[in-house]
Write a structure and sequence with these properties.
The protein has 236 residues and is an alpha+beta fold. It has one domain (17-216): Aminohydrolase, N-terminal nucleophile (Ntn) domain (Glutamine Phosphoribosylpyrophosphate, subunit 1, domain 1, 4-Layer Sandwich), CATH 3.60.20.10. It contains seven helices and 14 strands. It has helices at 4-9, 70-89, 98-114, 155-158, 160-166, 173-190, 223-226, and strands at 19-21, 24-29, 32-38, 41-43, 46-49, 55-58, 62-69, 121-129, 132-138, 144-146, 149-151, 197-204, 207-210, 214-215. Strands 1, 4, 5, 6, 7, 8, 9 and 10 form an eight-stranded antiparallel beta sheet that branches. Strands 2, 3, 11, 12, 13 and 14 form a six-stranded antiparallel beta sheet that branches. The protein is globular, with a radius of gyration of 20 Å.
Length: 236
């Protein structure tokens, strides 16, 4: 007969996030969905990894971005691989669209939360099917919504105000990329977990495209960066 300690040891949970990624920002543009994330992976407060892909195509019509625990994201990708494989086995000429995948993810996250074994991620799911653009997000406790632009992590506080001011439904691809770069630059300046190596992906009716990573151009000669106490009372 197994002891209580043996049965407890068989259950493994992510009690604390170890290697984590920061914000994902996404928006609808004229022809589809654009999504951006940096490639940093933080081990605690240390930026340990700088080439982590957090944007992944899912099936034929969807694109997934994740912030939070990287190993939990890998587990979610395994779930989605099984889901897409099972759907393809029907061979009925239909395939899961972004709305169905997003609904599935909301159920997975909420189910794991109810088991007190959450997946420590916030997910962004976008896609295009039959000419319909879809963009939504879900966090680690199952809270979810659909919108014209979404962001996770610190981006939810710093990037979305920019998107509310500057986003419109007729954004061209070039305008959308420029807007995402602006958001990612703001996050780089203010988020200690962000790196300037970012990746942008798009998905249209034709499928997903992951563009090569590139470095954001930054400017650090502002007087506030050189001496943040300039003009403050009692400074010298």
């Amino acid at each position: 007969m197994a002891s209580n300690s043996d049965s407890v040891s068989d259950t493994q949970r992510t009690l604390y996030p170890y290697v984590t990624g920061t914000s994902v920002v996404a928006l609808k543009y004229k022809n589809g969905i654009l999504m951006a994330a940096d490639m940093g992976g933080s081990y605690g407060s240390t930026l340990r990894y700088k080439s982590i892909d957090r944007l992944k195509p899912i099936g034929k019509h969807s694109l997934l971005g994740a912030s939070g625990e990287i190993s939990d994201f890998q587990e979610i990708l395994r779930y989605l691989d099984e889901l897409i494989l099972y759907d393809n086995m029907w061979d009925d000429g239909n395939s899961l669209g972004p709305k169905e995948v997003h609904n599935y993810l909301t159920r997975v996250m909420y189910n794991r939360r109810n088991k007190f074994n959450p997946l420590w991620n916030a997910l962004v799911l976008g896609g295009v099917k039959n000419g319909q653009k879809y963009l939504g997000m879900v966090n680690m406790i199952g809270i979810n919504f659909e919108d014209n632009h979404v962001a996770t992590g610190l981006g939810n506080h710093l990037a979305r105000p920019i998107l509310r001011d500057e986003w419109h439904e007729n954004l061209t691809f070039e305008e959308g990329v420029k807007l995402l770069e602006k958001c990612m630059r703001v996050l780089l300046y203010r988020d200690r977990s962000a790196v300037n190596k970012i990746q942008i992906s798009k998905i249209t009716e034709e499928g997903a495209t992951l563009f090569p990573p590139f470095s954001l151009k930054t400017y650090w000669e502002f007087s506030a960066f050189k001496n943040p106490t300039v003009g403050a009372e009692g400074s010298w």
